[in-house]
């Protein structure tokens, strides 16, 4: 009889908690969809400030703007800036490139990759050799590569349903392509843009020369997918054609910038810290509305929703807008460095850095016990078509963050169109759907609420 009574009481309490959480999520989604500020914030970031590459005027304006919005929003017990030294790379004048085939000049869209050196002032003209991997360079050897432009033309894999997997399977040629080609005497590299779509937008992104001497640095640029298709076709017709590339980018001295942080002190466990954030910097070709303006304003919206519904968190909530994710990751590293110095106890971190499309779920970095606990909440999200709870990468900015029992998560929006815009000149405000952006913010707020209420194992 006692066992039956206990089971009845447990079931009743569980059902009450379930209903309470369902109602709280309904309130969160209603607030985000009817009373949010995130679309207006993103309009300002994109259309009034624009691109926000680390070390730029736009990046500094974004720091000042988001700090002011946190202070105006209210609800934060503290708003502050966290100093971080960041790289300053300047693109310079627009790049020029064309295929020279039997005296025919065909212009193609290119853009310098982040951190690249410039070409000589008059540009570079050389024969082209097409490859599909850095390993292929070893097979060809210096005899076939020296004095040429290496053209990396391995497409993202269309067979991958998860486009992030297609990206990770191709991006090594962008990141390390110049470094590897330089070892064999190449004079420059051009890389097929990381894009599943065939279009005329070249996609920039970070690249690294690694530990090779500066005297061996060679210019490197991305070519649009249409341009890559055309160049490959022309090479099959004439393997001796040449390619002209001119770019004037340069690496400057590091400059001072900031992470922007707003803190809501926990009412019961202020020593436990929950982070929600995105990265404030963007590449310089466009507004960076998807990457990562969306994540910035969604993170701010978490605080706005809590304020609007009158929710007082038990644990300390920090909205952290990280600087320099795109070409160095120094904001996330600095945040972790200071967290260790200050002996802070982070129990959870959530990042949005996959665009402002319709949310589909989360990817978690956690032990089995916490993943099982969080997976039990999946039914609460299913009415909102949030169905994907998986283990996997959370986010680049929160990746360095450590804690005794920390759980990390990344918002997982629908990814099919993300690489149409990623690091390209069309990543602008008009590519954002207001409702999808707000749904993402509501989904993030809901997870933060549940973590705050039930804690981690």
Q: What is the total number of structural domains? A: 2
Task: Please bin the fraction of helical residues.
Answer: 25-40%
Q: What overall form do the CA principal axes indicate? A: elongated
- Mind describing the biggest β-sheet? 8 strands, mixed
Beta-strand share of residues:
15-25%
Secondary structure class reads alpha/beta
**Mean pLDDT figure:** 95
Question: What's this, in brief?
Answer:
This protein has 457 residues and is an alpha/beta fold. 37% of the residues lie in helices and 23% in strands.
How would you describe this structure to a colleague?
The chain is an alpha/beta fold and 457 residues long. It is 37% helix and 23% strand. It contains 13 helices and 18 strands. An 8-stranded mixed beta sheet has the order 1-12-14-13-15-18-16-17, sandwiched between helices. Helix 1 (2-34) crosses helix 9 (289-309) and helix 2 packs antiparallel against helix 9 (289-309). The longest helix is centred in the N-terminal third of the chain and has 33 residues, at 2-34. It is elongated, with a radius of gyration of 24 Å.
């Amino acid at each position: 009889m006692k066992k039956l009574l206990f089971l009845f009481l447990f079931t009743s309490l569980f059902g009450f908690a379930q209903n309470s959480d369902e109602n709280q999520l309904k309130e969160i989604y209603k607030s985000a969809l009817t009373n949010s500020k995130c679309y207006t914030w993103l309009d300002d970031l994109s259309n009034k400030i624009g691109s926000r590459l680390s070390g730029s005027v736009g990046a500094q304006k974004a720091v000042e703007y988001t700090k002011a919005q946190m202070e105006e929003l209210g609800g934060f017990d503290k708003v502050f800036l966290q100093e971080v030294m960041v790289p300053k790379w300047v693109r310079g004048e627009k790049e020029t490139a064309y295929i020279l085939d039997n005296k025919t000049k065909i212009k193609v869209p290119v853009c310098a990759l982040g951190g690249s050196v410039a070409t000589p002032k008059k540009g570079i003209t050389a024969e082209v050799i097409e490859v599909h991997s850095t390993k292929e360079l070893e097979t060809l050897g210096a005899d076939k590569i020296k004095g040429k432009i290496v053209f990396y033309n391995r497409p993202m894999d269309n067979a991958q349903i998860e486009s992030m997997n297609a990206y990770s399977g191709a991006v090594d040629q962008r990141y390390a392509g110049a470094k590897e080609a330089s070892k064999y005497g190449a004079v420059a590299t051009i890389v097929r843009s990381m894009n599943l779509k065939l279009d005329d937008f070249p996609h920039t992104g970070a690249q690294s020369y690694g530990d090779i001497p500066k005297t061996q640095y060679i210019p490197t640029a991305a070519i649009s997918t249409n341009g890559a298709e055309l160049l490959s076709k022309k090479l099959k017709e004439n393997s001796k054609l040449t390619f002209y590339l001119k770019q004037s980018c340069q690496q400057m001295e590091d400059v001072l910038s900031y992470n922007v942080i707003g803190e809501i002190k926990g009412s019961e466990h202020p020593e436990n810290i929950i982070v929600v954030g995105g990265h404030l910097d963007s590449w310089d070709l466009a507004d960076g509305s998807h990457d990562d303006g969306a994540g910035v304003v969604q993170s701010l919206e978490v605080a706005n929703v809590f304020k609007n519904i009158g929710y007082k968190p038990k644990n300390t909530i920090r909205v952290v807008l990280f600087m320099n994710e795109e070409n160095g990751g120094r904001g996330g590293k600095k945040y972790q460095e200071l967290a260790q110095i200050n002996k802070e106890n982070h129990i959870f971190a959530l990042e949005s850095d996959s665009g402002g499309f319709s949310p589909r779920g989360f990817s978690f970095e956690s032990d089995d016990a916490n993943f099982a606990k969080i997976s039990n909440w999946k039914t609460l999200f299913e009415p909102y078509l949030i169905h994907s709870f998986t283990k996997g990468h959370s986010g680049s900015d929160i990746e360095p963050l450590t804690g005794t029992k920390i759980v990390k998560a990344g918002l997982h929006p629908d990814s099919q169109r993300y690489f149409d815009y990623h690091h390209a000149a069309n990543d602008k405000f008009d590519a954002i759907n207001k409702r999808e952006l707000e749904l993402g913010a509501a989904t993030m707020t809901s997870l933060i609420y549940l973590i705050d209420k039930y804690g981690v194992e």
